[in-house]
Amino acid sequence: MKKYRYAKIREIVQDQIIETQEELAQALEREGIAVTQATISRDIKEMMLVKVPYRSGHYRYALSSEEPMLLAKNRLIDIFAHTIVKIECSGNIVVIHTTPGSANAVAFALDNLNLPHIIGTLAGDDTILLVVEEGYSAVDIKTEIYQIFHED
C-alpha cells in the first residue's frame, strides 16, 4: 500500500497545485486513500518533497531533484539482492553477471545513480558491461557497487 500511496502522491504533486498537507490528504482521499496527518507528514519527509514558489507569495509541493537518485539507489539495492550473480573487472571494464532477463533493470538503475567515472553501460540479457573512465580503477567501481548493495 505504501508504494501505491507514494506513486499517487508523486502523480498528485506533478498534476495538481498542492500547497498544504491537508490538501494532499484530501487529494489522496479523492483517490480512495485515507491517511492521517502523521502519515502525510512522514511521507513528505521520506519522499523528500519540497516546497517551491509557483506564484507571488505562494508555495506548492514538488518532487525533489534528488528523489530519482534515491529511488534508483533503493531499486538497485533491491535488484542486487535478487539478480546479481557476480562482478568481474578487467582493465577499465566492469562486467556484471545477472540472472537471465535482469541485466536491463540493473543497468537502468546503475545509469540513474549517476556514479562518477562510469562512461556508460551496455546491457544484454544477463550481462552488463560498464566502461570506466580512463585513469580510474574498475576495481574501485566494483567496490563502490558492492558498497551500495550492502547499504541498509
Kindly list the characteristics that best describe this protein.
152 residues, alpha+beta, Arc Repressor Mutant, subunit A, Gyrase A, domain 2, 2 domains, 4-stranded antiparallel beta sheet, 6 helices, elongated
What's the gist of this structure?
This protein has 152 residues and is of the alpha+beta class. It has 6 helices and 6 strands; from the N terminus they run H-H-H-E-E-H-E-E-H-E-E-H. It has 2 domains: 2-62, Orthogonal Bundle (Arc Repressor Mutant, subunit A); 67-150, Gyrase A, domain 2 (2-Layer Sandwich), CATH 3.30.1360.
What would you say this structure looks like, in words?
By secondary structure, the chain is an alpha+beta fold. It contains 6 helices and 6 strands; from the N terminus they run αααββαββαββα. The strands form 2 sheets. The chain has a 4-stranded antiparallel β-sheet. Strands 1-2 form a two-stranded antiparallel ribbon.
Low-confidence stretches: none
* Structural shape: elongated
The top level CATH class name of the largest domain: Alpha Beta
* Helix and strand pattern: HHHEEHEEHEEH
Instruction: Say what oligomer this is.
Output: single chain
Number of domains: 2
- How much of the sequence lies in strands comes to 15-25%
End-to-end Cα distance, whole Å, is 21 Å
